[in-house]
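ok so I'm stuck.
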Amino acid sequence: MIFNGFIDLPLWGYVVLALALTHITIISVTVFLHRHQAHRALSMHPALSHFFRFWLWLTTGIVTKEWVAIHRKHHAKCESEEDPHSPQVKGLSEVLWRGAELYRIEARNRDMLAQYGRGTPADWLEQHLYQRHSLLGVTLQAVILLVLFGAAGLAIWAVQMIWIPFWAAGVINGIGHYWGYRNFEIPSASTNIVPWGIVIGGEELHNNHHAFSGSAKLSCRPWEFDLGWFYIRLFSLLGLARVQKLAPRRTLISERSQLDLDAIKALTVNRLQLLSDYGRQVLRPVIRQELGKRQKRLYRKVQRLTRRDKGLLSEADLQRLNQVLEQNASLRTVYQFKLRLQAVWEQQAISHEMRLAELRQWCAQAEASGIQALQDFVHLVRRYAMVPQSLA
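replied:
not stuck anymore, here's the structure
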């Protein structure tokens, strides 16, 4: 009786059950561990928070403090030798197939846990059950599934055991820093794997997350979908969660005659969007004009190199970029203007008034450059405005 289980389902029933259980686990990771615990992007009702803690203990054996600390360190040390799981450092294959093992290795670092694991649950259940007996939950789950569904239950349990290690620890930490598209050119190599965050609850939008790590919503473009955000909105409507932080939203108004302090504040908040606009509205048309349609492969390569953060370019990439810039005067000019635009916000301890002066000078020189795309971009810069955060 036990081997066959008390419940007999058709094959499709077992598939649906496995997908349902793993789906709850994915939502537990992205909403509870990632957005709530690691980044404090939302607050959560204690009952819902504890359900997710219990579910993760039962289905993964993840210890909240360990996961949160490792993830925070990843953001703090991204793409460096101290990053616990950067494919740029350790190699894609290592992170993709041994991602869970990299977590276990890093979790042994007590100093790291103390530094990056602050603010995570430390109640009696966490200390005496979830953390001390982290493997008891997955063992209990195996017994329950075996009793209920027999051999099929053990197969479902096996799927649960590999789901998070492969999709979250492997795919997101590996492919999500190696292949995909980028909305924002930031110092990390993070990418959006696909624009529809469904399989991994929205974590597929990894470049968006690294650009705005404190945001409860991972989608930024109108065509992107974040399933985790759908659940956060649902929990909010039920009174079980409250959003604390969202990524800034660009708003454009009628063009100002001159930049002012309000404009600088809006540009500072939206500086990543501003640089993204620069890539599309200045670099792309100038590259197309300079290189021509007959050099499509070079066009794509140069577009990537000019938009990418210089810290992520290899020596070979830098040499290739410099060769192209030396041969194309207009492209060299707009690339230098891009670096100067970045530098306005890279300076530390600088006031809004000083940024305003620098950006006014940048705009005046851009208008005098004689390059139409650069001149048109100045008009866009003068239209940026602040907008209150919205849950839309």
